[in-house]
Amino acid sequence: MTSTSTALDAQWMPFTANRAFKRAPRLLARAKDMHYTDVDGRRVLDGTAGLWCVNAGHCRDSIANAIAGAAHELDFAPGFQMGHPLAFELAERIAALTPGDLDRIFFTGSGSEAVDTALKIALAYHRARGEPSPVRFIGRERGYHGVGFGGISVGGIENNRRTFAAQLLPSIDHIRHTHDPARNAFSRGMPQHGAELADDLERVVATHNAETIAAVIVEPMAGSTGVLVPPVGYLDRLRAICDAHGILLIFDEVITGFGRCGAAFGAETVGVIPDMITMAKGLTNGAVPMGAVAASRGIHDAVIDGTPSGIELFHGYTYSGHPLACAAGIATLDLYESEGLFKRAASLAPYWEAAVHSLRDVPNVIDIRNMGIVAGIELASRADAIGARAFETFTKCFERGLLIRVTGDTIALSPPLIIEQGQIDELVGVLGETLRGVE
C-alpha cells in the first residue's frame, strides 16, 4: 500500500501483528455490497462479511439513512430509568425471530458484553430462585466468547487466555471440543460422528456436582477457532444433559445469528432451543456496534418477580439500546425480511458447499468443513511455523483482490448473504489459485 499519507503509529491495533502490519499495511477506504475498495482504488471481494457481521452487504442505503435519521432526531438517550421507542421496537422485532420463548431482550454494546451479560443473568436467575450454590460456568475447548474476563474465562482458545490467566474467573471448567478429523474430515454439513462427545459434560458434572453449575455456554458452530461444525445429535444431547441436571444452556450466536446458517438463528438450524442466546454482528449488519441477550421468559420472570421492589438486575451499559444502533438494527431486520436473506442463504448453501469442497485436492488442504454460508479450509501446518501457510495465503489473496480470514492454519470464509453464484466461483477460484502457489 503506497498511496496514503496516513500516519500509523498512534493506533494500537486489535488482534494484529502491529509491527508487521505497519511495515506493509492493508488499508480499506470504501465498501459497497460485496466489495471493499482499498486506498489505492483496488476492488476487493469480501469473503468474510467484514468480520462475520455484514450479512446484508456493505453500505446499504436503507441502513445508512436510518442511522443518519436517528443521529438528527435522537443522538443519545440514557438507558437507566429512561427509555426510547426505538429500543422497545427493536426488542419486539428480535423477539419475533428468536426460537421458543426466548423473547426477553437485554441490549449490550458488543458480543463480548452480551456474553458477560448472559453469565450474570444466569447467576441472578439461580439466586432469585433461592439457589446460591450454582456459581460455576462450563465452556468448551476451542470456544470463543469474546474478550471480556467472563468470555475469556469460559472461552477455550489458549492464546486468548494465556496472558490473562492469573485473573480469570475461578469457578470454570471446559468440556472437550468436537474436532475429530480422523472420523469426520471433509464432511459436508454436520458430521455424522461425535454426538457422544457431549457426554463429556457428565464427567464435569461428576467432578463438580450439578448443584454447583450455573450454566453451560457453547457456540452452535464454533467459528473463530476454525469453523467446527457440530456433529449430528451433539447439541440435542448437550441439551438433554443440561435438562437432566437443571443446568442452563447458553448458545453464543454472535456469529451464527441472523442468517449465517440458513435461519434466523443457529438454534433453529440445529433444532435445539437453549435458555439464552447471545447475539451481535449481524444484528446491525456491522454498521453500528451492538449486542443483545435473548433470555427465556422463565429466566426473565424469575429475576424480575424475585425482586420485591426496585432495580431487579444491577447490570447494564451506557450504550445499551443506543438510538443509532437501534435504528441500524431495525433497518437491518427490514432488509433481511424484504430480501428474504435467511431463506436465500439456505437455498444457496448447497451451491456454496459444492464450491468450497471442490478445493479438496488442492495441495496442503487436509480438511474442509461447512455449514450454511460458512466454510473452514484447514491446511497442513509447516513444521516450524504453525499458522504461517494460512497467513501467507491471506496476504496473497488480498493482493489478488480477495479478503479471507485465517485462524491458525484454517481459512475461514463467511461472505455476505447477498453473494451471487458467480462471485462464489470467483472467490473459490482465486483461493484455489493462491493455494496452489503457496508452498
Overview of this structure, please?
- The strands form three sheets. A seven-stranded mixed sheet has the order 4-10-9-8-7-5-6, sandwiched between helices. Strands 1-2-3-13 form a four-stranded mixed sheet.
- It is α/β, with parallel strands linked by helices and 439 residues long.
- The longest helix has 18 residues.
- The model has no long low-confidence stretch (mean pLDDT 97).
- Helix content is 37%, strand content 16%.
- It folds into two domains: 136 residues, Aspartate Aminotransferase, domain 1, CATH 3.90.1150; 275 residues, Type I PLP-dependent aspartate aminotransferase-like (Major domain) (Aspartate Aminotransferase, domain 2).
- The relative contact order is 0.16.
- It has 16 helices and 15 strands.
